């Protein structure tokens, strides 16, 4: 595989459901390399297209509903979506479905044909080829990270924050479009600057079009908007999430390690702590990250919150039979450009997540969320997520299933206290994830024979016996200097 600027994105999207065998050692890839002179065959046309763009959070969410028609003389099953080379490595959660027939998502992948081309493509493979002159309604959704730019880039501590978003009022398409419309949803009505296009304004929603004249393939109409967003742009460059299973203790221990940053506007002056303290009484809108809210599963207990210095006491945990919530307050407000790394963890009853099947192999089924973490109104994005499922020692024949697009799957060995051969560990890696993926399930199946359950007690028993035998043997040694009487 040749290097390119879009390598990261080229492995971001897999099929909607991913599964692995017991020895998943090679990274997964969905890249399809095409000839350098490749251009998407003009076998489709967009009869009608509606594009919805949502910038209410700290990342951009897009949904495109397109009625496509096969204008070729042969059945076709490959539909291409163009993206700029500077954007494609920021795209995540790309998904395509038949809008009228709910079912599994279609297979999607990145098609690379020239690493230096300004345009790259996602390829959607239809489950069944579309017959000539037939139509299909596609529902395509994805999100784009780091697409919003603070303008001005530096503000005072209590100033409003404004973001600049640049886009095309025409939906980027590899095929001609007969009719289309674009809707843009803002978090506020404070939108001082609008450049390009003539949108129809209705509150916090802009509508461009409808464009009833045919638009050729690849046509773009640049536009930009600047709107008020006085909230932090929360981004985790890396999240490491561990889920450890203990059959003997009946416990599921979760730990998450975050490397957070705020992509908002930087401070134009030095931080004023006195000014910040006065705002705690009336809590005005701020571009700084004040706190994080982490909803947990009911029954969660024993939470902790630490950072590079040590334990952080500014947290609050509330738990009941119906819900559990962990409220975190960093040691300092995280303004634009500032960083904060920390870890949180908690325990839960294993019985709520694990089922035992009545099979000779002792099969177990574990169902846990792939992503939990903070749930904030302004949204949270993740550049990279590494998920580890640490199974009991002796677990084998490990398989998994998840809807999360993955870029890497590994099976490792994790060794802890009193282990012999170590614990089987499943490591999954995803890129360009957002908080909307919270609670998407990860299902892991593994065999845990009855004999393996006694490995730990036997190891402990033999260890204790070895200590006593060694002590007895040393006590029997004659280390005196004189001759025996």
How would a textbook summarize the main sheet? 7 strands, mixed
Strand order of the largest sheet: 6-9-4-3-13-16-15
Q: Helix share of residues?
A: under 10%
Cα-atom radius of gyration = 28 Å
Cα separation of the termini: 81 Å
How many helices? 3
- The poorly predicted ranges are 1-30
Mean pLDDT: 86
Query: How much of the polypeptide forms β-strand, as a percent range?
Result: over 45%
Helix vs. strand class: mainly beta
Key features?
485 residues, mainly beta, 7-stranded mixed beta sheet, 7% helix, disordered N terminus
Notes on the structure:
There is one protein chain. The chain is mainly beta and 485 residues long. The chain has helices at residues 7-10, 273-278, 455-476; strands at 18-20, 31-33, 44-54, 60-70, 76-84, 91-98, 107-112, 119-130, 135-144, 149-150, 154-155, 162-168, 180-185, 193-195, 200-202, 205-211, 222-228, 234-246, 251-262, 266-267, 292-296, 301-307, 315-319, 324-328, 339-349, 354-356, 363-369, 380-390, 396-402, 408-414, 423-434, 441-447. The chain has a seven-stranded mixed beta sheet with strand order 6-9-4-3-13-16-15, with no helix packed on it. It has a seven-stranded mixed beta sheet with strand order 22-25-19-18-28-31-30, with no helix packed on it. Strands 1-29-32-27-26 form a five-stranded antiparallel beta sheet, with no helix packed on it. A hairpin with a 6-residue loop joins strand 26 (354-356) and strand 27 (363-369). The chain is globular, with a radius of gyration of 28 Å. The model is unreliable at 1-30 (pLDDT under 50).
């Amino acid at each position: 595989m040749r290097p390119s600027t879009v390598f990261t994105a080229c492995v971001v999207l897999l099929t909607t459901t991913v599964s692995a065998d017991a020895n998943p050692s090679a990274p997964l890839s969905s890249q399809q390399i095409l000839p350098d002179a490749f251009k998407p065959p003009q076998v489709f046309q967009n009869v009608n297209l509606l594009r919805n763009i949502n910038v209410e959070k700290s990342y951009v969410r897009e949904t495109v509903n397109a009625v496509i028609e096969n204008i070729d003389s042969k059945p076709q099953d490959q539909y291409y979506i163009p993206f700029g080379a500077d954007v494609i490595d920021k795209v995540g959660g790309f998904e395509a479905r038949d809008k009228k027939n709910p079912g599994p998502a279609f297979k999607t992948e990145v098609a690379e044909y020239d690493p230096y081309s300004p345009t790259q493509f996602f390829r959607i493979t239809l489950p069944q080829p579309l017959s000539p002159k037939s139509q299909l309604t596609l529902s395509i959704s994805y999100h784009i990270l780091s697409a919003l730019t603070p303008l001005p880039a530096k503000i005072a501590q209590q100033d409003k924050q404004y973001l600049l978003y640049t886009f095309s009022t025409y939906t980027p398409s590899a095929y001609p479009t007969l009719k289309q419309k674009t809707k843009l949803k803002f978090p506020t009505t404070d939108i001082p600057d609008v450049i390009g296009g003539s949108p129809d304004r209705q509150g916090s929603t802009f509508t461009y079009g409808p464009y009833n004249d045919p638009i050729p393939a690849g046509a773009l109409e640049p536009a930009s908007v600047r709107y008020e967003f006085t909230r932090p742009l929360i981004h985790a460059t890396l999240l490491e999430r561990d889920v450890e299973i203990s059959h003997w203790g009946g416990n599921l221990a979760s730990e998450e390690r975050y490397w957070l940053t705020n992509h908002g506007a930087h401070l134009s002056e030095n931080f004023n702590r006195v000014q910040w303290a006065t705002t705690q009484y009336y809590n005005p809108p701020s571009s700084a990250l004040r706190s994080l809210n982490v909803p947990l599963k009911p029954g969660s207990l024993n939470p902790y919150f630490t950072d590079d210095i040590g334990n952080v006491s500014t947290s609050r945990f509330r738990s009941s039979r119906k819900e559990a919530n962990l409220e975190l307050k960093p040691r300092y407000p995280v303004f634009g450009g500032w960083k904060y790394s920390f870890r949180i963890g908690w325990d839960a009853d294993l019985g709520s997540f694990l089922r035992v099947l009545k099979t000779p192999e002792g099969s177990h089924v574990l169902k846990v969320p792939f992503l939990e973490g903070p749930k904030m109104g302004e949204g949270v994005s993740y550049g990279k997520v590494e998920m580890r499922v640490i199974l009991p020692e002796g677990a084998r024949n490990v398989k998994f299933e998840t809807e999360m697009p993955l870029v890497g799957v590994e099976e490792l060995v994790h060794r802890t206290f009193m282990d012999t051969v170590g614990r089987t560990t499943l490591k999954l890696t995803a890129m360009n994830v957002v908080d909307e993926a919270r609670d998407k399930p990860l299902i892991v199946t593994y065999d845990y024979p009855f004999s393996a359950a006694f490995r730990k007690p036997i190891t402990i028993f033999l260890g204790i016996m070895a200590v006593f035998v060694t002590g007895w043997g040393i006590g029997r040694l004659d280390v005196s200097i004189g001759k025996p009487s």
